[in-house]
């Protein structure tokens, strides 16, 4: 454990042990301490690291709109705000199924109990191909923290901290971990309820005044790090937090506090969801601040990609401007070039950005395929 010190007097020989067997003894100032493989750690305290590193490897999710237009990195922070029925849970489950992390911690925080049951039914049947070609069940790399809406409020407030501490434990082993929190709004509501019971002064919408500080201290625990101890290893924790603002209103205190902290914003749109365009990420309001950090990766992968992506964004932005004109004067009044722009944008929208999570050929899209389709 990080806080242990002294002279090693005993190390267990190689073999099979349970987590309660003594594997190490330390002597410090005449006192001998025994250590097992079980570690206890206070969940609200971040685990110590040697140093923080700059993140430069993309988190590939298998969702074209996220990988190509709004990429995140291993060790990044992302927020998925969206109203009910926009597909937040489907996106966060797709991330846990197909992302390129070594381990996944999925915290169901105050959501429906059926969602946890769904995960437990779906994940054991899914397999992923390991680098050496073996097929493994996705369940083997997944840790679930189940904390549904009918469980005590105090547990809900602690569940997100429990999840991030588990993620840090795997990170200290040198893995890239991604943590899905579904949803941080329920956690903030639990915080509000507890602070109400403690008779603290309420702030905006009845949330406690320290809401933003608590959210920041949670998201700050993400990042790519050099782990303590030897042998030298690097690990990372990526946090993806789903936020459900009441009525899909992004000016809600939880959403606005989250957006001031996270680096990637995948905003879900109710109108797109009603048109059955999934994943319903609105490409006009979403953003990613990691595009420059990933430029070196893209240069190695495909030198043209950055130009193609800029072009695609321009086409989508131009389409939005043209749509206003079309609503006023109709499509026939446009110049020929603008009509082509509209058709191209329609192709991009319907065939590239929309993706069916329930078909075998389209539920996961590798990055090279995303690049070639965009080209």
How would you characterize this protein structure?
With 375 residues, the chain is α/β, with parallel strands linked by helices. It has three domains: 7-36, no CATH class; 51-290, P-loop containing nucleotide triphosphate hydrolases (Rossmann fold, 3-Layer(aba) Sandwich), CATH 3.40.50; 301-374, Bovine Mitochondrial F1-atpase, Atp Synthase Beta Chain, Chain D, domain 3 (Bovine Mitochondrial F1-ATPase, ATP Synthase Beta Chain, Chain D, domain3, Orthogonal Bundle), CATH 1.10.1140.10. It is built from twelve helices and 16 strands. The protein has helices spanning 64-69, 88-98, 113-122, 153-172, 184-197, 211-219, 253-259, 270-274, 295-301, 305-329, 336-353, 367-374; strands at 7-11, 22-28, 31-36, 51-53, 58-59, 72-73, 77-81, 103-109, 127-129, 135-137, 142-147, 176-182, 223-226, 234-243, 264-265, 287-288. The strands form four sheets. Strands 4, 7, 8, 11, 12, 13, 14, 15 and 16 form a nine-stranded mixed beta sheet that branches. It is globular. Its EC number is 7.1.2.2. This is V-type proton ATPase catalytic subunit A. It is an enzyme of class 7 (translocase). Residues 296-375 form the ATP synthase A/B type C-terminal domain. It comes from Vigna unguiculata.
Point out poorly predicted stretches.
none
CATH architecture of the largest domain: 3-Layer(aba) Sandwich
CATH homologous superfamily classification of the largest domain: P-loop containing nucleotide triphosphate hydrolases
Query: What is the mean predicted local confidence, pLDDT?
Result: 91
Biggest beta sheet summary: 9 strands, mixed
Number of helices: 12
In angstroms, what separates the terminal alpha carbons? 50 Å
Beta strands, count: 16
Query: Which class do the helix and strand fractions yield?
Result: alpha/beta
How big a fraction of the residues is strand?
A: 15-25%
Give the overall form: globular
Kindly state the percentage of residues in helix: 25-40%
EC number: 7.1.2.2
Catalytic activity: ATP + H2O + 4 H(+)(in) = ADP + phosphate + 5 H(+)(out)
Protein name: V-type proton ATPase catalytic subunit A
InterPro entries: ATP-synt_VA_C (IPR055190), ATP-synth_a_Xtn (IPR031686), ATPase_a/bsu_AS (IPR020003), ATPase_F1/V1/A1_a/bsu_nucl-bd (IPR000194), ATPase_F1/V1_b/a_C (IPR024034), ATPase_V1-cplx_asu (IPR005725), P-loop_NTPase (IPR027417), V-ATPase_asu (IPR022878)
């Amino acid at each position: 454990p990080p806080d242990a010190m002294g002279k090693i007097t005993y190390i267990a020989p190689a073999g099979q042990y349970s987590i309660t067997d003594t594997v190490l003894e330390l002597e410090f100032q005449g006192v001998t301490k025994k250590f097992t493989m079980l570690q206890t750690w206070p969940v609200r305290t971040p685990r110590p690291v040697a140093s923080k590193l700059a993140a430069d490897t993309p988190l590939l999710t298998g969702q074209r709109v996220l990988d190509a237009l709004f990429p995140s990195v291993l060790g990044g922070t992302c927020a998925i705000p969206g109203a009910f029925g926009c597909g937040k849970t489907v996106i966060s489950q797709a991330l846990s199924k197909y992302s390129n992390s070594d381990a996944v911690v999925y915290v169901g925080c105050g959501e429906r109990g059926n969602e946890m049951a769904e995960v437990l039914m779906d994940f054991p049947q899914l397999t992923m191909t390991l680098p050496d070609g073996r097929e493994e069940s996705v369940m083997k790399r997944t840790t679930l923290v189940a904390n549904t809406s009918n469980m005590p409020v105090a547990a809900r407030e602690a569940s997100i901290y429990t999840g991030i501490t588990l993620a840090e434990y795997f990170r200290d082993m040198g893995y890239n971990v991604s943590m899905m929190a579904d949803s941080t709004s329920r956690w903030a509501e639990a915080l509000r309820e507890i602070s109400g019971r403690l008779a603290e002064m309420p702030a905006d919408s009845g949330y406690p005044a320290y809401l933003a500080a608590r959210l920041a201290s949670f998201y700050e625990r993400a990042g790519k790090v050099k782990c303590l101890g030897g042998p030298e290893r690097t690990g990372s924790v990526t946090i993806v937090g789903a936020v459900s603002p009441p009525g899909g209103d992004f000016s809600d205190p939880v959403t606005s506090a989250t957006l001031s902290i996270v680096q990637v914003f995948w905003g879900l749109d109710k109108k797109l969801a009603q048109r059955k365009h999934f994943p319903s990420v609105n490409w006009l309001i979403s953003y990613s601040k990691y595009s420059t950090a990933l430029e070196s990766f893209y240069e190695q992968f495909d030198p043209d990609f950055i130009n193609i992506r800029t072009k695609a964004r321009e086409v989508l932005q131009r389409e939005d401007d043209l749509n206003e004109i079309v609503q006023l004067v109709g499509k026939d009044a446009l110049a020929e070039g603008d009509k082509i722009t509209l058709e191209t944008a329609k192709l991009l929208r319907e065939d590239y950005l929309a993706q069916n999570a329930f078909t075998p050929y389209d539920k996961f899209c590798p990055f090279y395929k995303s690049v070639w389709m965009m080209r």
